[in-house]
Amino acid sequence: MIATESLSKRFPRVTALDRLSLDIGPGVTGLVGANGAGKSTMIKILLGLSPATEGRAEVLGLDVATSGAQIRERVGYMPEHDCLPPDVSATEFVVHMARMSGLPPTAARERTADTLRHVGLYEERYRPMGGYSTGMKQRVKLAQALVHDPQLVLLDEPTNGLDPVGRDDMLGLIRRVWTDFGISVLVTSHLLGELERTCDHVVVIDGGRLLRSSSTSDFTRSTTTLAVEVTDSDAHPDGTEALRAALTAAGVTLHAGVEDGLPGAGHILLLEASGEETYDLVRDTVAGLGLGLVRMEQRRHHIAEVFKAADQQEVTAR
Ligand SMILES: Nc1ncnc2c1ncn2[C@@H]1O[C@H](COP(=O)(O)OP(=O)(O)OP(=O)(O)O)[C@@H](O)[C@H]1O
């Protein structure tokens, strides 16, 4: 769907993208990075709206440097910022966008009605958009990206400004763009956690450089820490240490140190979970030692920790 090779974009004072090489297949892909990481710059280059300084990029097999117009016919784009005219209705606006994409009048009206229904806008679609909530505006922006039935949509921070329920609704809609319509999605966010649930593949960039590109399951697996808390017993007055020794002997990777648990409830061990077998192993080991299991829960790393890990690798490599 998208391939870039050593793609760079340098502004006079900032390198927004630094030799980025990516290969993104069909499905839902998340492009994650902090503010200023280069996400919007990447999208503008992929749409053929802004030239790269070095390197190359292809979208649907078309070169962004020479085929911008053809790419924009086949690709939908949801921009980050509020760009909706306040005094027209969602229906008028989306019909207009459909016409701009080349659909004849009747098809444009039909596709608009279908798309607005899909994103969950019903009678309010006839009201001027100036009075819409942020969630409704984001839905209109998604609808206009989908109305010409593209093969791929590029969504720039679609959950920006939404409350947790609005965020979940938007992420559900995005997932269905792929599962119900077979339209591939590249979605940007500065929150890794929300994309983990929605995307098949996650690309993390920082300061314009690629930190990581992997399938979500690989990502989650390798960034999953399990927190385990046990009680002590007569046979094992320090249950945490007994469990640490038994799990180490069984080949489990434990983090150094313990987290303080609730008073009198022992301590929390942090260990690397490599899959469901780790859960079973912990459960069986705790039972074998005759300890009580207070908690076993998944801890997820935050994006900042992914960045930190990459920085450390870089320092080690220098
Ligand atoms: N036209 C421009 N001229 C100069 N610098 C720019 C321009 N556009 C972007 N930049 C800079 O390039 C870097 C990447 O910006 P970009 O907008 O791509 O980041 P982003 O990851 O999309 O972040 P955000 O979510 O905050 O928009 C930033 O340092 C930004 O200031």
Descriptive notes:
With 318 residues, the chain is α/β, with parallel strands linked by helices. It has two domains: 2-214, 3-Layer(aba) Sandwich (Rossmann fold); 224-300, 2-Layer Sandwich (Alpha-Beta Plaits). 39% of the residues lie in helices and 27% in strands. The chain has eleven helices and 14 strands. The chain has a six-stranded mixed sheet, sandwiched between helices. Helix 3 (90-100) packs across helix 4 and helix 9 crosses helix 10. The longest helix is centred in the middle third of the chain and has 16 residues, at 164-179. The chain is elongated, with a radius of gyration of 24 Å.
Short structural summary:
The chain is 39% helix and 27% strand. With 318 residues, the chain is of the alpha/beta class. A hairpin with a 2-residue loop joins β4 (54-59) and β5 (62-63).
